[in-house]
Amino acid sequence: MKYQIKKTTAAVDLAAEWDSACWKDVEALRIVNARCESSNHRPETELKMQYDESGIYGLFLVKDYYVKSVHTDFQESVCRDSCVEFFWQLPGAGYFNLEMNAGKGMLLYYIRDNTHTENGFKDFTILPEEDMLMLKKFHTMPDVIDPEIVGDTTYRVGFYIPFELMKKYATFKQPSAGTFWRMNAYKCGDRTSHPHWISWNPVHALNFHCPEDFGVLEFC
Known about the structure:
By secondary structure, this protein is mainly beta.
């Protein structure tokens, strides 16, 4: 699968509504490929993205029914909460995994070798707090959601990733029209009452850390 990310010259507001002026004309990808290990819960999840000279902007829209979020610090296991994720791979380099729960929590690693070991991966970097502070996150839900909400709930999670941050870990050419990266996007909730693992591009196993399963991100 392929997603075409378009360049914007206008200011991007992560807090703007899904159909606001700065987001309404941006194409949305749908995260619908659920793993068979999932419960019967299938939250409707979409992602819009755009970029400018400084970085990439994204906005998730989730229509959920069971929502829980308890991790608030950088690099905690937010995938156990109601969580959305964006993974991207630079040409000839490793990949980043941005994971964000519905509340305050956020995780980002740079992974050069995704071979599993008892310590996680064979070769990876957990980004320090000073680098995490270069990111921007927006969320419409409270910082903590506990106990779990049961009932129709719609929320947004937005992010901004500066190219400056990526260049601290990998060498790459500034993207422009005609540049191709690889990516995938996910919705999960490992330890919610109704666990689920859903992807944009299908994954061949219950493992989101498989770059061979990534789709194409085309810069326009």
